[in-house]
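Example protein was shown:

_____
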Amino acid sequence: MSHLNGIQSKQLNQLNSKDGEAFTATSAPGWFIKGNSTYGEAFSPERPGNLVKFFTTGSDYFKDVASAIKNAKKSIFISGWQINYEVRLEGDTRLWDCLNHALRKKGETPDIYLMPWLSPKAAVDTGDLETMVAAFILNAGLKKKKVWCLPAIQQSDMGSLGLFFSHHQKMVVIDNEVAYVGGIDLAYGRRDDNNFRLAADGRTANEFYNPCIPALKEIDPHQQYPYMTTVELISAALLEGDVLSKAQRKLAWAMDNKMFNVLRQAKKEVGEWFSDKGKDGMRLLGAGAAYSTGSVLYIAEFVKRQMTGDNLEAWKNTLRQWKVSLDGAVNTIDQEAQPLKKTDSTLTELRQEAKSISLAIGVWLEKPQEASAIQQRVEDWLVRAQQKVPMLTSMTQSGRARLQNQVGQLKSEVQMWVQRVTPQLDQLQQDLSTWATQIIKSGGQLTDKLLNEGSELTSLWIQQTGLGAFYAWINNTPSPILTAKALQELEQIATPFILYLHSVLDRLSETQKDEPYSYLADPATRLLPRGGMMLDDKTQPRMPWHDVHMRLEGSSVYDLSRNFIDRWNSLQARFDGKVQKMPSALIGLLKFATKNLEPVPFKAHYLAQPERVAPTGEMNVQVLRSAPMRMRNEERQGAAKAGHNLTSAAPNGVQANCLQAMLQAISGAQHFIYIENQFFQSEYGADSAETAAVTAGPMQSLMKIEGLPGYEIYKDRLRLGNLQDNPKSLANVDYFELARMIRNKEAETFTQGVMQVLSNQSTVEILKGMQTPQNAIKNPLCEALAERIERAIEMGENFHVYMVLPVHPEGPLNALNLMTQVHLTMQSLSLGEQSLIKRIQRAMAIKAQMDRGKTETQAIESIKFFKDRTETKRVFEDEDWSRYLTLLNLRSWEEINQQPVTEQIYIHSKLLIADDRIAILGSANINDRSQMGDRDSELAVVVAGSTSLPTSINGRMQYPVCPQVKQLRTDLWRKIFALNAQPRKNSVQPASDLEKVIATPAAAATWQAIQRQAFSNAEAYEQAFRHVPRNDASIWPLWGQVSVAPPSSSAAVKGASNAMPFEKEFWLSTMAGKHPTTVCGFITALPIHWTKYENNNSGFNLTILAKIEPTRDRAATSQHYAVLAQDTQSKERT
């Protein structure tokens, strides 16, 4: 209890008056950090002279940053975990439009630098590829290059797990004068206001955002013309001008209204060029397009001509052998033809073709082309040579014999290659190859059998191979399920492809002619949502977004510019002079674009150090980072190559500034702490006894294939019996029989369940295998909060912590990582043995026992026991922890199409306020990824005023507060109490009674009033909507209340009422929701006993947990196929 500032001990001496009366002490803690050996070097010092403006809504921030971007004169720096070029900032004005305006306005125009995180497509796709391509297109028509974009590859210290870590910073700097920092990415779904509308309210496509529920509305192929795919965007960047880009779009739609052909100019008339190159284009596999003739033909050709990475080196060696044999044949013919001085047309043709193939092989070894094309040419030449050589009369007998031997040698080499490669193909690849051959031979005359078989095989190809997953991803149709093998292979393809494409676009951007692609420049043309699916605005809600951001002017802008420039230069140095080649697995992918696409050494574009910024304003600010050692070392290398003065010593550890500052603020707080955070996952000791005893439940149903209804019936037919011994792949499954069952819609719930469980098992196993997982959460923020409250309990202080968290992380509640995160959050808050609530209860119980005369040792011993033999609670668990802690979620409801609908308001903030004197806000979540310093990079700021205002925050005495920080908390409370919302019928009403307590956050009457309203709201929601989380309920509150059998008809589906929102059935059924008209404000009480009787820990690798995109089975109904694995506690919970 001596670590008052979280970093160093303080000695407090009592000051007394002459009469011996103790003076009232007011702490003046040091809110700003200094570097030390535990948490590393501070990124920046505290700087006075800053002007700060806080944003409590995304709409206010977006409007402000849009204006700043459009009016920029010198430079624009943007970094983010997610940056979407088409995000709407104000009205229908996109980020891309603001950047384009800045480049083409009169007067000074800025240089623009974008640095989105290069997301691993195997885990999560944030749209960085599309943003990179759209950014380079901005250069079209400019006199000189003004836009650079380099997706930031991870720079963590996490070794083989590194690809799962991110750059999580969210920052914009304009002209080194104005900066924005906080929790809001320039991304889909973030623009919200005080109303938290659930209705679409004009939003559509990717902006109509709710990742917690399945998208129901399919954009029909013939309606996809207003949308662009990733492929089309790439083609527009490579076509060097708008005229050709528009031509390829119109011609592609004219040929096949369901798909685009991606083409490139070849110095011919457009029509001639189209017919010549169109067959080699990339084609959109859009919604429903898998059933069109053109798409099936293209997939077949794509499959047939690709080589696996494993075979590439062997293929190169084989080609060298073939080249030797072909060159030998050419030499033999030349030797024979010269002395005979004769010409033979057959001999001449054989020679010319052999020479041509030999030259092609030589080129291929230096420049990738399609492997299968060369092999086919060699095989065709062998057929002709075997037919013609024996009949040649223009050669000597010895020459003919020598040529026949060379032909035989080449034939033997080809046969050896075929025999060597074919056995390496698994059954799926062999069936795919056979099918592809049949398709190509059909000449487009496709039978229903071939189409259906192709649909099954390509679906499995996409789910089980990285190449298939890549093909689907780049055509905006990713599979909801990927095997672990496919995940690994996809990452080995996707990231190198993006870096290769970057190197090409970086070079070609200066040659862009005309104006930017007009379809991209038109805000009405949107990116096609993944899979051609979007939410149905007639029945489904968006997920409202709550976040905090800040505008900064003054001296600390320099530090934010320096952060961007250091990171930018570190990446430039990493790639400086390196050649980024096309991944070997994608040989021939861009054959349509043969001009100027050869990779060349990367030409780095280093940025100079920023200038110091003059102070303005009265706020003190310190910029904080979480920065891995690898990132810091690479920043130093980048600074050296950029010619910066290296004034500081080489890094000797990570920067964990965010953790240090939060610990210091928590320990130094005197009256109250207010926290909003996307996560609360912190060290909590052992799991609760109830959790440890669970052997069945929702999580177990998703991980155990033997728990699926129908397992005993189908296990032998699908060869499922041995999967428990090797759950890492689908190799043991009779996938063709599974495909046949899927095609016939036989046991549909079971087959969907098989795919989901196998995918879950293999994903967990492979992530464990990549690196030994850590055993428990490490960050000490839960302990710090507990210690501060324990000190208040011991000293008899009035102290309170308010914490606002999301109901659950964004995503469907049947996703493994999300369920595990819920488990960790509940254990950290209330269920774990050293959880925050249990720590508070223990301290209260010990204090009560000691007040009765017991020693501390006696008190600690006495509270361990159960109250009596019939009780399941220990003595200390009766203590009322709510005197010191208020835990809140946010939720809204609204009537959509005359039906009451509810959804959580997603808390994405990363904010801590102490005593209305200090605010810490930025990108750092309360979890290991953000706080430990060696994982995700983070950016935050400590903000405090240089002057204070005496205020009665507890309703009794005056204490100094920072007016700006107090106003931030006031605005946030008014927002979450719905005091700033526009009242609407059939929706949330303002919590007007809470307005009078906003000014006194440290008063008992305040937290009591807030808790009463939150509990009242929670009760109203629970009565109105059976599926919302609640105490003593399953993670799926309706678990155990559903039927084992799947619905037998559409009528049965319509009448179902026990599905969860992550299931399609929930939205197809008649909802049983009521109108919770008594709800006032958006706050609800967090249910501290939710999931108490379950174990939802999937075994996911804790080292990486938090930012992996959920694996979703949008078609599966996980409750239906999982219900046989019942929890023995189910009767108590339902």
User: Anything to note?
Assistant: The chain is about 40% helix and 10% strand. The longest strand covers residues 885-896.
